[in-house]
Amino acid sequence: MSPEDTALTVPKAELHLHIEGALEPELAFECARRNGITLPYADVADLRRRYDFSDLQSFLGLYYTGMDVLRTRQDFTDLTDSYLDRARKQGVRHAEIFFDPQAHTTRGVALETVLDGLEASLATSEQRFGVTTRLIACFLRDHGPDSAMATFDELLPHAHKLTGVGLDSAEAGFPPDAFAPVFDRAREAGLRLVAHAGEEGPPEYVWQALDVLGVDRVDHGIRAVEDTALLRRIARDQVPLTVCPLSNVRLRCVDTLDEHCLPRLVDTGVLTTLNSDDPSYFGGYVGDNFHAVRQELGFDDAALREFAANSVRASFLGAGEQDRLL
Ligand code: ES4
Ligand code: ZN
Question: Which of 22, 54, 129, 205 makes the best surface tag, with the fewest CB within 10 Å?
Fold first, then answer.
């Protein structure tokens, strides 16, 4: 891709990005070295060769193993700097960044270490990278609602550092409705709400995210195309979907990119955004996702500009801040 390519240059917001999924193998080995940890991989090339997934669960195994090298404030700062630098080069002007508190606290890394490390990078992101940022803390659905509630209690003193909460990790067998109490508390605390739904899970989980959790955006949501009434509802209410095309291919939610439901979503009038999800693992950052859908699905540059505008409108920025990017 040329550096002048619209896929890279159009100003955009990234709304679905797990910071732990931006851990590049080189930084993983560097963190392992300085923390005295031995990764179960021979080298960077060996680790990259394992990025061949059969489904969400097969990815999550590598994702949680990889992030075990993140131990110190500096690790989280370096990780975030690395993402912001790459995102900037792909036209990202605003990023709403997910992190998984439980993935760190359950292995003995304090929430304060994670938050301080992230914040040290984010504090100067606008000056250094021209990227404004927000933070969204995600609950791991496979750890259950009680663990989510305990995590929320821990997060509450830091609520002013967060824009919202989300729900992620293994989806099938973990319906959103169990998390209604913790989402209610987050709403009462003034936080915005998002949830992964309809990635591997059925349309019913998307209904629950909307009607039971009351989310402001649905992460993925692609299986909504299996339910016409649901798709109509999402289009009518302009509930944004944060779609991650390269992720969907890598995790085999779709067989090939040219079979992706993105054109159907757009044709139905859904407010659709393009995002990278876990860019280190899925073969590209957000501009690469823009490029791929133009290449494989026939969207033109005007359509890419529309996806970018959608990302700004679907962001949690105020109207004035959105105007700056539109
Ligand atoms: C994730 Cl692709 C995906 N789906 C669900 N949870 C996740 N956490 C990180 N990446
Ligand atoms: Zn995700």
Answer: 54
Say which residue the tokens 């033109």 belong to.
Answer: 300
Q: How many CB atoms neighbour CB 177 within 10 A?
A: 15
Percent of the chain with pLDDT over 70: 100
pLDDT given at position 246: 98
Locate tokens 């059925």: which residue?
202
Residue 317's pLDDT band, with cuts at 50, 70 and 90, is very high
CA torsion sign for 102, 104, 109, 111 is negative
State the residue for tokens 């959608």: 310
Q: CA angle, 280 as apex, 127 and 132 as ends, to 5°?
A: 20
- Structural domain boundaries in the chain: 7-314
Q: Ligand 1 pocket, 169 CB below 6 A? A: yes
Between the CA of residue 230 and those of 60, 156, 171, 222, what are the distances in Å?
Answer: 28, 33, 19, 11
Tell me the pTM: 0.98
131, 125 contact by CB (below 8 A): yes
Residue 22, SS3 per DSSP: helix
Residues annotated catalytic, as ranges: 199
From 19, 199, 275, give the residue whose CB has the most ligand 1 atoms within 8 Å, as the site to mutate.
Answer: 199
| Percent with pLDDT over 90 in the chain | 100
For atom 6 of ligand 1, which residue has the closest CA?
A: 169
Fold of 7-314: TIM Barrel (3.20.20)
CB-CB contact of 280 with 22 (8 Å): yes
